[in-house]
Specification:
This protein is α/β, with parallel strands linked by helices. The protein has two domains: 2-222 and 442-487, Rossmann fold, CATH 3.40.50; 226-438, Rossmann fold (3-Layer(aba) Sandwich). 44% of the residues lie in helices and 13% in strands. Strands 3-4-2-1-5-6-7-8 form an eight-stranded mixed β-sheet, with helices on both faces. Strands 11-10-9-12-13-16 form a six-stranded parallel β-sheet, with helices on both faces. The longest helix has 17 residues, at 441-457. The protein starts with a strand and ends with a helix.
């Protein structure tokens, strides 16, 4: 089969450039690359179709075709649309119809046919619906993170809706997601929770809640064992270890350097709740006695001296963090480490595992949580939010593979972290077992391929209803009230 992966936002290249530096270069890019790579290794032809542009600030995406070394059958196909520069995902909507037309033109010029399309995020899902309408080729939808859940966590109300909507264009995103849900032949989710809760949200009434359960396929992501294996160093291991040792020597009091660490490795974002972690640590003398805290900051060499290179929202979080650090006299107990790539991240995980450290993610909500799986693969026990996908990852019937945290209570965060340290070997062993038995990318790829083959053998086309705005944005208006009624429907 030839399978297309539609992912218009962010971008892909052989060096995984800009990953984690920008919200549009987030976890869905890792997901798409890994599944596409493993499907190609199974003998299929795979194209990751993304957007082509030429931007001196975010550069390297101007060539139409690109490849990952050593992976035959997989290519990156960049298709232009809209302005010839990088644009954020909230500005993509009005250009997707043009993007789809250009995809069709590209494959026609190659005289290449494709059998199935997988789509990712709301913009990719809408593009898949447009492509199906124009070519008849079926598509699947993988939402990754749905707009309604983001609205919930941001605290969107009728009173502040317009303010948030101007920034995030929720009325377009939710309508695109509803269109993708109704038109997709398969809905891939990472967990049962995602299927049973996220797609049944009020915002998707008449769409996600109407789907036949058979259209859902649970296909959890996995860890790249070549990168994150707990015993396999990479070519940056020595460099990263030296950097980390120098950083800890600089930031941590000498009498505390033999203590393990509570490691947080996620982008600075309010929903990741770094403040909750540091507040819990600050309030727990017991936790301070047994561990230090390490927080990753990409591109910041010494946060105690300067972090002005961060974005304004990230700087605001840092000011609050330093407010807590100074109020509770935590200098010498907390460090900020600079991790700039997946290889560096994997090496860091192995380094901290040697120090009997734990990984934590105190996000207010996490759709799935690939980071804890990668940390477990590298030998770190994990203590992560119970809100969202991690609940399914870390708990199976009565068996637990890590500690689930109630992140709404700083006292409970501290208790959970202490529990992970008290039962360190148990959770370390459980985490490694869980990854190897259930969360590898090869398993995910096989789930995708089998589901696609089953669908193509018994296709069930659904009638598409695509709002005229997405077909002719220059001639149509999409008013926020068109989707607001769904979200606020009690």
């Amino acid at each position: 089969m030839r399978i297309l992966f539609l992912n218009p936002q962010g971008n892909f290249d052989a060096n995984d450039s800009y990953w984690t530096e920008h919200p549009d270069f987030g976890g869905q890019l890792v997901y798409v690359k890994e599944i596409a790579s493993n499907i190609a290794r199974l003998g299929h032809q795979v194209d990751i179709v993304t957007r082509q542009f030429n931007d001196e600030k975010i550069c390297g995406f101007d060539r139409q075709l690109d490849y990952y070394p050593g992976i035959s059958g997989l290519r990156i196909v960049r298709i232009p649309c809209g302005p010839n520069r990088f644009i954020i995902k909230e500005e993509l909507w009005e250009h997707l119809n043009e993007w789809v037309d250009n995809i069709i033109t590209f494959y026609a010029s190659e005289k290449t046919e494709f059998d199935f399309v997988t789509t990712h995020y709301g913009d990719g899902g809408l593009a898949g619906a447009l492509l199906q309408e124009k070519t008849g080729v079926s598509f699947s939808f993988t939402g990754h993170s749905l707009g309604a859940q983001k609205m919930d966590k941001l605290g969107v109300t009728l009173e502040n809706f317009e303010t948030f909507n101007q920034r995030y264009q929720f009325h377009k995103r939710l309508l695109a997601e509803r269109t993708a849900m109704l038109g997709a032949g398969i809905i891939f989710t990472s967990t049962n929770q995602e299927r049973d809760e996220q797609y049944r949200h009020n915002a998707y009434l008449g769409a996600g809640d109407m789907l036949n359960p058979e259209r859902f396929v649970i296909a959890p992501p996995g860890a790249n064992e070549e990168v994150f294996h707990h015993q396999n160093p990479n070519d940056r291991e020595t460099e990263v270890i030296e950097l980390l040792e120098n950083t800890l020597a600089r930031d941590i009091d000498i009498e505390r350097r033999d203590l393990p660490y509570i490691l947080s490795a996620s982008r600075l974002d309010p929903k990741k709740n770094h403040l909750g972690l540091v507040q819990a640590y600050a309030e727990s003398q017991a936790l301070q006695e047994i561990a230090n805290v390490a927080i990753s900051l990409r591109g910041v060499e010494n946060a105690f001296e300067d972090y002005t290179q961060l974005k304004p929202q990230e700087q605001a979080i840092m000011r609050e963090l330093f407010g807590l650090i100074d109020r509770y006299h935590l200098r010498g107990k907390i460090t900020f480490i600079n991790i700039d790539s997946q290889k560096a991240l994997a090496a860091s995980y192995r380094f901290f595992a040697q120090k009997h450290s734990i990984f934590t993610l105190t996000a207010l909500y996490e759709p799935f949580g690939l980071a804890p799986i990668e940390a477990m693969c590298a030998g770190l026990p994990v203590a992560v939010t119970k809100y969202g996908g991690p609940h399914d990852v870390l708990k199976d019937a009565e068996v637990t593979y890590g500690v689930l945290l109630d992140v709404t209570d700083t006292n409970l965060i501290a208790k959970g972290l202490i529990q992970a340290f008290k039962h360190y070997e148990y959770y370390q062993k459980q985490g490694l077992y869980r990854v190897k038995s259930a969360y590898t990318w090869e398993n995910t790829a096989r789930l995708y391929v089998n589901a696609i083959k089953d669908y193509l053998d018994n296709p069930l086309k659904t009638p598409l209803k695509i709002h005229p705005y997405f077909k002719q944005p220059s001639q149509q208006t999409l008013h926020p009230d068109s989707i607001k009624v769904f979200y606020f429907n009690d």
